[in-house]
Amino acid sequence: MSTIAKKTGGGGLDLGPMPPAGVQQAVCVDVIDLGIVETSFEGKPRKREMIHVIWQLVARDLKTNRRYLVGKRYTLSLSEKATLRKDLESWRGKQFTSDDETNGFDTTKLIRVNCMLNLQHVSKPTGNYCNVIAIMPLYGGTAKIQPENYARPSAPVDDHDDETDPFAQDAPGVAPLGAPTGPPPVTDDDIPF
Fold first, then answer.
1. What does the alpha-carbon distance between residue 77 and residue 48 come to, in Å, rounded to a whole number?
2. Among 78, 59, 77, 83, CA closest to 69
3. What are the backbone dihedrals phi and psi of residue 40, each rounded to the nearest 5 degrees, phi first?
4. Facing residues of 121 across strands?
5. 185 SS3 class
6. 3-class DSSP string for 60-123
7. pLDDT-derived band at 183, boundaries 50, 70, 90
8. pTM (2 d.p.)
9. Among 75, 30, 76, CA closest to 55
10. What number of helices (H) and strands (E) belong to the chain?
């Protein structure tokens, strides 16, 4: 089932241990349709269709040797002010066109797409959190990673607002030893979605 974001006039998930802050390489592993979620804005209740995007980092938890997971909840909208739109345009490195707005964007296209995430630790009375504050395209010449041992989280928790070895020589997107290094030229084919 695809989840389509269009231009329009929750709860969080327990993703495990908190990942390290800073810029981290990641791969999108899931886009979860949260359905209609009641939220509030400026003290007024409202209902929004929402999704939760989940990334798996290249960084690993030293205790379990599993990759960290981090997620971000979005209103499913491509309006000019929508955070989803801003983050997707930053991730893809190009703006949405009016055709994209009209036809919509299938958010399941994000799965298996690499990026760089800027993560920030936040302490609140309700707990400590790791927020995704920026999403950027993968740096030129960086080997892509593939999802690894991912299982969809099932336990919802209160939100605070807002299988392969990727380094194997035959892994997709990994240059063989001795291959030229440095960023390749960027083309339209390099835009991930």
1. 9
2. 59
3. -135, 150
4. 130
5. coil
6. ECCCCCCEEEEEEEEECCCCCCCHHHHHHHHHHCCCCCHHHHHHCEEHHHHCCCEEEEEEEEEE
7. very low
8. 0.73
9. 30
10. 2, 9
How far apart CA 104 and CA 99 sit, in angstroms, is 8
Paired sense of beta strands 105-106 and 4-5, if any? antiparallel
Q: For residue 7, which of 121, 147, 104 has the smallest C-alpha distance?
A: 104
pLDDT in tens, 73-121: 999 999 999 999 999 999 999 999 988 888 999 999 999 999 999 999 9
Instruction: Count CB atoms within 10 A of the CB of residue 63.
Output: 7
The whole-number pLDDT of residue 186 equals 44
Q: Which two tokens stand for residue 90?
A: 């930053």
**Beta carbons of 104 and 5 less than 8 angstroms apart:** yes
Using a 10 angstrom Cβ sphere, with 0-12 exposed, 13-18 middle and 19 or more buried, the burial of residue 132 is: buried
Q: Between the ranges 49-53, 157-161, 185-189, where is the mean pLDDT highest?
A: 49-53
Calpha distance 144→163 (Å, rounded): 14
